[in-house]
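Hi R.,

Quick one: here's the Serine aminopeptidase S33 domain-containing protein sequence you asked about.
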Amino acid sequence: MKTVLLHGLGQTAQDWKEVVQQLSISDVDCPELFSSTEDEISYSQILGDLEQRYSEEKEPLRICGLSLGALLAIDFAIQHEEKVASLVLIGAQYKVPSLLIDFQNLIFRCMPNKAFESMGLSKSSTIKLAHSMRSLDFTAQLNNICCPVTILCGKKDTANLKASKRLKELLPQATLHIVPNAGHELNKYAPNTIAEILNN
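And here's the predicted structure, written out as tokens:
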């Protein structure tokens, strides 16, 4: 069974490196979500790329996503229930807080272009992508997710802690793990915790 690791906005596939090194499973895929050559990058385009990438898979996937990756994992599981064996959702939102996106974009606009070089996305593309996620709300469709779900959130990730707890209530089959002394990017702060869950 293939395990798919989906990174967050401001990250690349390289940010899963420490997790992958601790995995005892061999079939692992870490797609670069922003590798498309198109100038106009959007959430729906990234989801479409993932759907195309895994369209030939015969076995259901185990999908682990962080932040933007978690949104994509939820969306993919809603649209393709038969293709998903389990989900691990890290720092997840199921309804994008538009005020938070707008505030984030305000910060992005003030940052120099150079700051975006390591993200694999230009400044304007990052702002466009974040803006394309403003209206995402999966609340009404969460009951379409029937597979096992593990929700992870760093205790210091205050922006996503409340949503993670609420997501646990909305998905009765889910288990929630609050990771002490960790922030949002758990693939950097607590790679061993993620690896342990994926190895079981």
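Residues 156 and 183 are 5 Å apart (CA to CA).

Cheers,
M.
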